[in-house]
Prior knowledge:
The protein is mostly beta strands. Helix content is about 5%, strand content about 55%. It has a single domain (about 5-715), classed as Beta Barrel (Maltoporin, Chain A), CATH 2.40.170. It has five helices and 43 strands. The strands form nine sheets. It has a 22-stranded antiparallel barrel. Strands 3-8-9-6-7 form a five-stranded mixed β-sheet. Strand 1 (about 45) and strand 2 form a beta hairpin. Residues about 1-35 and about 370-410 have low confidence and may be disordered.
Amino acid sequence: MSQITPRLLASCAAAGLAALSIPALAQSSADQSAAGDDNGRLPEIVVTADKFSRSIQDTPIALTVVTGDAIAKSGATKIDDVLKNEPAVVVQGAARGFLVSIRGLGLSLPPQMGQGAVGTNFDGAYSSRAENASVGFYDLDRVEVLRGPQGTLYGRNSVGGIVNVVSKNPVLDKVEGYVGLEGGNYSLIHGEGALNVPLGDKVAIRVSGAGISRDGYMSNGHDDNKSYAGRAKLLFKPSDDVSLLLGVEHSALRGQGPGAVPIASILAGTRETTDVSVGFQRVNSYKYWGELRADIGPGTLSILPSLQITKGRTIGAFGGSLADSLDPKLTRQEQIEVRYASQPGSPFDWGVGFYHYKSRNITQAVSTPCQDVDGNYVIPAAGFSALPVGSPPGPVASGTCLSADQARAESYEPEIRRSQTDGIFGQITVPITDTVRAIGGVRYTWEKVSGENVDSLDLTGALTPLNDEHFDYRAGLEADLFGGKSKLYGTIASGYRQGGYSFGLGTFEPETMTSYEIGLKNKLAGGDMLFNLTGFYYDYSAFQLVIANFTVFPPQLFVPTMPGREYGVEAETVIAVGGRGRFNASVTYLDSRLDGLDGFYVGVPFPNSPKWSVKAGYEHAFEFGNLRITPRADLRFSSASNVYPETTVVADTHPSVQNDYATGDVSVQVAFSDSLTFTGYIKNVNDQAIKQSHFFGYAQLAAPRTYGLTANYKF
Length: 715
């Protein structure tokens, strides 16, 4: 049997845990009931997706929204729960959180290497860390999902789209708040609440918090959820023309942390793992932000600064080795955006701005082989990572045992990565006729990436800085049809994702693409029906694809770029039925392929891009005096999709493919008043094992069947 050195195994184990950040398929489950007015009509939802406040149906972007009330009633605490029913959205598993993929574009890089293709903004501040998607989903106003490249408005790393998480702001005119409790299987206990208090007629404060404790889904106790978070926001509004909002938030991840299940166990229908029951995670995030708004002349000046600091440590077993990872040892993100934009009632919409972002990320890892039952250190057999199915040999007397003095810890001293972005942007919508308008937007970005290694994987010293400049654009037309009941729009837009440093092998180039999109938004049946249709084509000149090679030392995660293309169609509808019913559905078709590189990856589809996905739900309210009972059912179907890129097109039975699946949720909500509601639910009712990632014989899975009861009281 071939030998693997302790250093190589340690390298593989630590990089293996890091590579669990490489995304894959995950469809989630959380109720998102659609609330209407007292007559059961569909509500008018106002968003700020294009930096203007307007109706979702009047915004020329493929866009959906999940309301804060729906999130609270469902007990959703993570982004996969929140976005489960959104068209063309797949939530990807990551080592300590979740990342979003839209139309097959998401994160394909571990966080120490690069950024995702979908930007996630919390209260207007971009966050590069996946941990924020695991906590922070409490006391929300809404979550907006923008599909398609948004480079002119949001900058780089928004090739696939944007997720805007908007928490509730303080209000000046009343004391209000809520309390929510939840219990369920896997010993789930979850609580959250908020309190808004005016401090005179010009100042108000809102404080909120949440905590959750749940046992792990895996046999060794991993994949649990122990977290808590708190937020405080202060509003000062001295006049109608000026407001200042300040916020501070702290979130913490605890418990045993993430884990992965051997493919052999998944095929056997279990979540058993041979990895030992050790490990913990300690991740703390701190955020400070503000927003100053002032009406000056014909426009409104907005200044949005923020500072985010994340520190963490995770210990866990992977493939028979124990990895101790300080990822991040420290991440510091500073940013500020300054905008000056037209006010409501202007003859046309316009806006200009400046954006600055600076980050510093430090990671460090220490690994050592695990011990068997006799106290010997164990190295799994050589070549285990190439097995097409099954798992690496576990840490119980299989493989090569080393004495304690032979097996020593291997330390990767800090890897330091720095990123700085500066950009200027402008957008305008100009009337051509009473019903036709031209859309235009530009952004110019200056990027700088730098870093250094301190004895990291035998690579030492400063890295050559990467400097880049990029021009993004958006152009199109929109037209009001049928007396304003429909909106037709068409756009051409560019997309850009920054380059960076590979893990153990050189640098990689930026990702660039051009998008062509046409959309039709309709209000039908007197406002009782919404029907939207979108078609798009993506032309990729450079698609970033992460490739792992752990058969060499140092192990490598490198990122080649290659041409590719994707086209798709999305249809979605919401219908008010009989005054008390609500039906929602979406159908998405995607066809993607890579053109390949050096004969590899030719015809391979984009990761996380199922050809067909269907999502549908129905709820109906039954009233008995003051009592309202609302049962709801949701269905999700997805055709097969790759959760990890293979060098050739593979069969649906391959371990790196999530096969066709269908699952759903059911719930019953009982409302004793508008203030007090109880909801019982079952999620993933048929207990589907849905892969979130695949990595050398292991996979992360979405949540199994869960059930529970939530109680919410608003005052």
